[in-house]
Amino acid sequence: MSASHTGQRQVIKQVLQILGWVVAWGWALLTIIGGLGLIITLGPWPPTNGWFALFSGLAACPVTAWALQRYRRVNFPSWARFLVAFAIILLGRLALKMEGRGTFLPDFH
After folding, report:
1. 7, 9, 57, 56: which is closest to 29 by C-alpha?
2. What is the pLDDT of residues 44-99, one digit of tens each?
3. How far, in Å, CA of 25 to CA of 95, rounded?
4. What is the per-residue burial (b if ≥16 Cβ within 10 Å, else e) of 21-56?
5. What is the rounded distance in angstroms from the CA atom of residue 36 to the CA atom of residue 13?
6. How far apart are CA 89 and CA 105, in angstroms?
7. How high is the pLDDT of residue 2?
8. CA 26 to mean position of chain CA atoms
9. In whole angstroms, what separates CA 105 from the centre of its chain?
10. Sign of the CA dihedral running 38, 44, 25, 16
11. Whole-number Å distance between alpha carbons of 93 and 106
């Protein structure tokens, strides 16, 4: 493998890391602020999409991974944060659907 080929891989790896970091922060800010907004406007009880969005954002947030690594010595890689955040949203929507208080798929009409 040539040196230029290895250099290209390094550049691609760095671009993907930056893109992942931007997406993680974007998702975290969007869902944490949106979730808090829903909790404030709809009230804290019974559980609403706001709680699931809030916890999804906290799971995806890079600060959560940093804090776990620093204070608990737990490695929480980006793929695991994405998986947990997605699962929280998915299971939250399913729970609300089963209770009859929402739809599983978003209705944009």
Report:
1. 57
2. 887 778 898 999 999 999 999 999 999 999 998 888 999 999 999 998 888 888 88
3. 26
4. eeebeebbeebbebbeebbeeeeeeeebbbbbbbbb
5. 34
6. 11
7. 59
8. 9
9. 18
10. negative
11. 9
List the structure tokens of 37.
Answer: 């907004």
Residue 1, pLDDT > 60, answer no
**pLDDT score at 84:** 94
Reduced to 3 states, what is the DSSP secondary structure of residue 106? coil
Residue 3: predicted pLDDT: 60
Percent helix, strand and coil across the chain, each rounded to 5?
A: 80, 0, 20
Residues near 54 by beta carbon (within 8 Å), at least 6 away in sequence: 31, 32, 35, 36, 39
Residues 6+ apart with CB under 8 A from 62: 21, 24, 25, 28, 81
List all residues 6 or more positions away from 29 whose beta carbon is below 8 Å from its beta carbon. 57
